[in-house]
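Batch 3, record 17
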Amino acid sequence: MKTNLWEKCSKEKRQEIENFCTEYKEFLSNNKTERECINFAKKMAEKNGFLSLEKLMKNPKQLKAGDKVYAINMQKAIVLFIVGKQPLEKGINIVGAHIDSPRFDLKATPFYESSGFCMLDTHYYGGIKKYQWTAQPMALHGVIVRKDGTSENVVIGEDDGNGFCFTDLLPHLEKETKREFGGEDLNLIAGNIAKEDAKEEKFIAGILDILKDKNISKEDFFSAEIEIVPSGKARDCGLDKSMVMAYGQDDRSCAFTSLKAILETEKPEYSVMCMLVDKEEIGSVGATGIRSKYFENCLAEIMNLCGQYSELKMRRCLNRSNMISADVTAAVDPNFPAPFNATTDAHLAKGISFNKYTGSHGKYGANDANPEFIAQLREVLDNEKISFQATEMGKVDQGGGGTIAYLMATYGMNVIDAGIPVLNMHAPWEITSKIDVFEAYRAYKAFYKMKIKE
Ligand code: MN
Ligand code: MN
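Prediction for the assembled complex:
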C-alpha cells in the first residue's frame, strides 16, 4: 500500500503546499456558484493573456502556436485553449472538471406563508442526504434578471452577519420517530414581521417591501437563479492543519487545480484545453453540461481561426485527443470504513487518485481507460515524481458513480478519471488533503505537456 505522503515531505515543499492551498481556500470561499467560478476563471484567463473567442470571431485574426483563447457559455461553463506547435488534427490534451455542486435552488415562485413566517420554497440540486443541510447557516447566491434585461447579483448571508436556515425539530419532540426529510420539507425562513396595513399575506408583504427598494418584484423570481449554499469560508481542518474543509470541493478542487495548471502552461507542443462545465451533478445535461455541443463548436471556431478547419480534421482531432476527467473520488472514511475496500480505494494524503474505471455493479456505465494510455501517464507522472494512487470507489456492488469521462470517450479519445480524494462528499462541508490538492495540480500540469502518440 502507498504511504502517507506527509512522511517524506520536506519543510520547503510543505510551505509550497501551504501557499498553494491558501489561494485554493480563498477561491472556495469566494466562488460558491457556477457563475462565480466562471467570473473568477475569466479574470484569471484575461490576466494570463487569454483572448476572448467571441471577440476574435467578430474581429478575426490568424491564431498561431502559443496563442491562448477562452470562451464562456451562458456564464456557467468555460473553455480555455492554448494553440500547440503541432497541427490540431494530431489531437489535444484536455482536462475537464465541473463547477456545479450539490445545493438547493429557490423555486420560480418561492414565496408562501406558514405559521406566521414568510417562507422560501426550494428544490434540491444533485445527490444529497437532506438531513445534513438543516439547522445551520445558509447563504443565498445568484442573480435576478428583470424584464428589461437589467439584473441584480445577490449574495446574502456571507460577510453581512445575516443568514438563512432550514429548520429541524428539537429531539424532545421526536424521541420515538426516525423521520426522513422529504424534498418539500426543506424551506427557508425568510421573515417574521407582519406588515401592518397589508390586507393578506402580511408576512410576504413585509419581505416584498424590502425587495421593492431594490426594484425587485415577486414575479422577478421566475427569471432568477438563486442558489442556497452553506454560509462561511473555507478553513483548515485538523490540529495539524493538513486538510481543507469547505463547501463545493466536489468538484471545485479539480476545477481550481486544472485551471491553475493551464494558466501556467506556455507554448505547449500539442494544443491543450481546460473545460470547466456545469450540470455534472444532474447528468451533464442542458446547454452548459458536457453533453452540449458547445465545446465542439468552440473547437471548430478555434481550428478555423488557426486556418486548420475541416470536418475531417476536426474528427481526427477529437479521435486522437487525450483527456483527464478531473473529478473527485471517495476517500476511505475512518468513522465508516465498511463500504470501502481499504486496499483498492482512495486514501487522503496518498496523492491524486486515478480511477481506471467508474460505474457500478458489473462496471455498468463505466469509462474503462486503456492500459496503453495509462502506461504513458505513469511514465509522465513518475518522471516528474508526482504521487498518485490507482483506486476504485467503494466495495464492488456497494454503489458507484460516474463523471463526464464516458461522455467524452464517445469521440473515441483516451479518457481517464483522475482527481482528489474527498471525505464527506456531497455534504455541506467536504474535506480534502492539502497534499493531494497540490499533487493533482502538478499532475494536470504535467499532462498538458504530454506527447500525443500517433
Ligand atoms: Mn464530481
Ligand atoms: Mn458529485
